Amino acid sequence: MKSMTGDVEILYGDPEVAGEAFVMRIRELPGGIVPPHSHPVDEHITVVQGTWYFALGEEYRPEALQELKAGSYAFAPKGTTMFGYSPTGAVVQVHGVGPFRIHWRGGLHTVDDPDAKLLFRFARGARVVVKGQPVSVVGGYASGKIVQYEIEAPNGERFMASEQELQPQ
Questions:
Q1: Are 108 and 141 a contacting pair, CB within 8 Å?
Q2: CB of 86 within 8 A of CB of 29?
Q3: Is the domain of 118 the same as that of 162?
Q4: Is the pLDDT of residue 55 over 90?
């Protein structure tokens, strides 16, 4: 098994290579929103663990999300815009034939970008409060209207939180 960046593990093949089959597993953190995006390949999605909410559409609409429990399968044809949500965390397996690329409908910015201060209220390492608990910002992304931070709790657990959920410490 070959690891990719973040919470993606390559189980088979190389998603970067045109014409090569691949299988990857993506660990979705609790509270994580996957903003609208598309891929230039057919995407076969199987929920391996947890519950994943998934929908096709050009903009993130929570009411369109369909619940997929462990063992469920979904298909997204190449070029189709999709989005997702993981309230309690999930492991999602994706397979297809490369090259696998992600085209974020609203672009993608991270807290590490040079212009991050224009898009994010909090920087990596910031101490913030979520639901009354002091936590640390360990990452974050913005795409379109969606701004989320990867948070680490004092016990080491990680989850995602929207900008509106965070208060300065």
A1: yes
A2: yes
A3: yes
A4: yes
- 157/85 same-domain check: no
Mapped onto helix, strand or coil, the DSSP state of residue 165 is helix
Task: State whether 130 and 100 are in the same domain.
Answer: no
Whichever domain contains 37, its CATH number is 2.60.120.10
pLDDT band at 4 (very low <50, low <70, confident <90, very high): very low
Peptide bond into 62 cis (omega under 30): no
Q: Are residues 10 and 79 in the same domain?
A: yes
Q: Tell me, what's the pLDDT at 7?
A: 86
Torsion-angle region of 6 (φ positive above 0: left; ψ -120 to 50: alpha; else: beta): left
pLDDT in tens, 88-100: 999 999 999 999 9
Could you give the CA distance from residue 153 to residue 169 in angstroms, rounded to a whole number? 13
Q: How many CB atoms lie within 10 A of CB 125?
A: 9
Please tell me the predicted confidence (pLDDT) of residue 97.
97
Residues 85 and 115 in one domain: no
Element (H, E) at 81: none
pLDDT digits (tens, 9 = 90+) for 101-130: 999 999 999 999 999 999 999 999 999 999
Partnered with residue 143 across adjacent β-strands are 146
